[in-house]
Each structure stands twice: as C-alpha cells, then as structure tokens.
Amino acid sequence: MDQVEIFKALSNKTRLQILNWLKDPALNFPEQPNADFENVGVCVGQIQIKAGLSQSTISEYLAILQRADLVSATRVGQWTYYKRNQEGIAQLSKIINSEL
Amino acid sequence: MDQVEIFKALSNKTRLQILNWLKDPALNFPEQPNADFENVGVCVGQIQIKAGLSQSTISEYLAILQRADLVSATRVGQWTYYKRNQEGIAQLSKIINSEL
DNA sequence: AATATATATCGGCTTTTCCCGATATACCAA
DNA sequence: TTGGTATATCGGGAAAAGCCGATATATATT
After folding, report:
1. Domain count of chain A?
2. Is residue A100 part of a domain?
3. Domain interval for residue B11
4. Of A4, A16, A89, which has the smallest distance from its Cβ to B13's Cβ?
5. Backbone dihedral region of B32: left (phi > 0), alpha (psi from -120 to 50 degrees) or beta?
6. Å from the B11 CA to the C22 C1'
7. Residues B11-32: pLDDT tens digits?
8. What's the CA gap between A3 and A99, in Å, rounded?
9. Does residue A54 belong to any structural domain of this protein?
10. The CATH number of the domain where B42 resides is what?
11. Distance (Å, rounded) from C-alpha B95 to C-alpha B82?
C-alpha cells in the first residue's frame, strides 16, 4: 500500500472520526442491533447515522479506509461490519517512526 | 494544528520525498553552496532542482509542510533554508499512537 | 416469485488540490 | 540607484476529492 494513499485516507475529518469511534464500539454505537462488536465490528448503517452523511458517502469512505488497511470488513447476511485493522494501524505507526 | 491538515500535508509524493531528503542533507544535496546543513537546513533552490518541479510549486509545498509543523524555515540573506522540525514530527508520532 | 432491507456502485455537481507561468518582494552587489 | 538572484505570492487550467441522489446488487422473508 502506497504511503500517500494511507495519508489521503486520513485527510478527512469524518474518516478520522470513524476510526476513533471504532475504538470503542459499545460506547459509540449503543443502538447496534445484535451487537457482536468484538468479533465483527459495526455495521455501515450505524456509522452512517452517527456521521450524518449520506449512505453512499459513508460506504465510499469505509472502502477508502479499507484500501488503506486501516479497517477490515466482514459480511454477515445483509450487513457489512467494519472494525479497526490494528495490524495496518500499527504498520502506519512504524512508517511514521522509521520512514517519514 | 488540525490533524487533518497534517495528514493533507503528507498526502503528496513530492512532499514526502522532501521530508525524507531532509533527513540526510549532506547525502541528498551535495551541491548546496555554503553548506551549513546542521544549523539551518537546505535552501529552496536545491530542493527545487532535486524535486524537478517549478520554483513556485516547491515554495508552496514547503509552506504547506511548515504550516503542519513538519519543517521549519530560517532566512539567511536572500536564501531561505528549510529543515525538519523534529518536535512536530515527534508530536505526529504521538498522535498516531494515542489519538488515531 | 415478490417484497423489503443493507450495502455498493454510478453519474454528476461543487470544492479542493496539483502544478504551472507571471509577477511581486526581499536582499545583495556594483 | 540599477541590476541580479532567491523566494513568495497570484491567477488559472486540469485533475482529484467531497458528497449527493439514483440505481444496482446481495441477502432475507413471505
């Protein structure tokens, strides 16, 4: 993954908020139905409501974060659950400390 | 400084390269006249030649990096020397590790 | 099969970024 | 003061990002 693409993914207030919200799903998404936060994450609809942007925009933003390896997705039935990709985030940390 | 602005500053290949080049000025800018790398950094002209973009573009890019606290500038005569702002970069590291 | 719900993708309008050449400003030297 | 060099700023055209509504796709239910 290109470093530039990772930083672009982080160059947006809403996307930074999403990453932050996903640090504590139980706190930030109390309305989640069938909550299985730890295993799969939070579904798109809940994130969309919280962010207050359109469904298509949030879907796109999550795809951008996923392409940057900052979140991962799991499809369960008609829902897609997103959670933080701690490996990808740790790798970013490494990039900052060594390559930047 | 807004986190988003820091990441925007890093969302460009040339700006990332400049930050990298400034890690070892003696290596990357052997042509620098009156080299006083450790104290003041590298002048705009040298960076411009190395980057291969226009003078105005590089001046603008350095201003963007400076606004993000990633480099600092020192004016000496008709030259402006830029070097890495290690404090700002360290603070970014902290942001990634704690707030992201 | 028909309908309903969740998400992804598409087309498009608006704003921002990229990068340039031209010009302005700052400093130096004669 | 005049001219030369280094950098900053301005104006703008092209490309990308932000964000939307409409539509397509996938899955579930009846």
Report:
1. 1
2. no
3. 3-98
4. A4
5. beta
6. 28
7. 999 999 999 999 999 999 987 6
8. 10
9. yes
10. 1.10.10.10
11. 24
Taking residues B60-89, what's their average pLDDT? 97
CB pairs below 8 Å between A and B: how many? 49
Report the pLDDT averaged over residues A49-65. 98
Do A20 and B96 make contact, defined as CB atoms within 8 angstroms?
no
B1: contact with A, CB 8 A cutoff: no
| Residue type present at position B31 | E
Distance B16 CA to C18 C1' (A): 15
CB A7 within 8 Å of CB B11:
yes
DSSP A35-63: --HHHH-EEHHHHHHHHTS-HHHHHHHHH
